Fold this sequence. Notes:
Blueprint lengths: L8 H21 L3 H6 L6 H4 L4 E7 L6 H17 L3 E2 L2 E9 L4 H13 L5 E4 L3 H14 L3 E3 L16 E3 L4 H6 L2 H7 L3 E8 L1 H16 L3 E9 L7 H10 L3 E5 L2 H13 L7 E5 L6 H6 L7 E4 L8 H14 L5 H19 L5 H8 L5 E3 L2 E5 L5 E2 L2 E9 L2 E10 L1
Parallel strand pairs: 1-3, 1-4, 4-5, 5-6, 7-8, 7-9, 9-10, 10-11
Antiparallel strand pairs: 2-3, 11-15, 12-13, 13-14, 15-16
Helix pairs in contact: 1-5, 1-6, 4-14, 5-6, 8-9, 14-15
Bound molecules: P-hydroxybenzoic acid.
P-hydroxybenzoic acid binds next to loops.
Amino acid sequence: MGAVSAFPLSRTVALSRTVAGLALGALVLSGCGSSLDESTGSGTEEDRSGGNVKIGLLVPLSGVYAPLGEDMKAGFELYLDQHDGKLGGRKVDLVTADEGESPQTGVPAAQKLVTQDQVTAVAGVVNSATALGLRDFFDESKKPLLVANAGADDITGARKSEYVWRTSFSNGGVSGALGQAVADEVKGGVYLIAADYAAGKEMVAGFRKTFEAAGGKVAGEKYTPFGKTQDFQPYLSAIRKSGADAVYAFYAGAEAVNFVKQYKQFGLADKTALYGTGFLTEGGALAAQGKAAIGVKTSLHYSTELDTPVNKEFAAAYRAEAGKAPTVYAVQGYDTAAVLDKALAEASGDSGDALVKALGKVGSIDSPRGAWKFDADHNPEQTYYLREVRADGDTAVNAVLGELG
Ligand code: PHB
């Protein structure tokens, strides 16, 4: 069992409720004047006159998702650099914390940002289980959380909160976007495989729903221990035995590298088409997979190959600063800074209530991914693209085949 699957969701949420309660108590007991004053919505003299604003950035800097966290941080920092280090006209004190690989590390790190560092808002969070574990803490402490990756469906669904906003995607949205296309292209059964934790389960469920509704047939389903699986051979053997005509997979970061490379080495790639959410072939993962990823088709709300002026300008600036091609994680970090820029300019004071009111008014974000805006549940309304990995000289890129309906 993987690190997170050994820590089931219900327990994660229950623990986070307890920890959220304790941390809230600490917040009140410590009598941290500014936070409590701020929660009245009036803001301090300094806030109103445009003093510095402290923002927490919670991203994985360790574990299988560390490369994702680095990209997200680089995207956020690029926006800051392009805006004189300011958001809403105020100099930003950015406090970065390591989310790690699971809620066991991510939840306390977020709580420290709020209770000890006393940030005005927290941005980041890559892992769905961590986002779910944090929901009650932010809801109860009335601090804004801007989820810049984690796709947990409930965060902007059944368990939505006034204080939780998402600038990325929902797991059901990004995976469901591909169902019809795969049902149209594949005649036989499709085998579903994913990392065994909240996001993997939801990606498979989201894909299965639209795929089966479009007449697709499932040939098998398997979840692999999250953060622990390096050798995918036993799973690849099971796929071969199932007689599936194609595979749908959710992996990201280091797991995506191993899965796609071994899929090719095992000889499956030539006979059994590989589909997935775009995280499977994104950024550093695609660079490491190289030619092994050619032909993999995915759904995502971004590609470096998007031929728009906004994306070209962004990609050139990111390449110049980060020394590599941008990724969806970088775009999500960049857009989160853009959202905060607009909201902080609009908000009257630093209270969570003032900021979430302003978040409701940010309108359309002119993003490298294409224009998007928050829906009524605080989730992006955006375009998903069908992408295919193709060779481009010595490298591989996610060519955009079209928009998914
Ligand atoms: C998630 O846990 O929600 C997650 C993690 C990595 C991704 C996408 C989603 O690339």
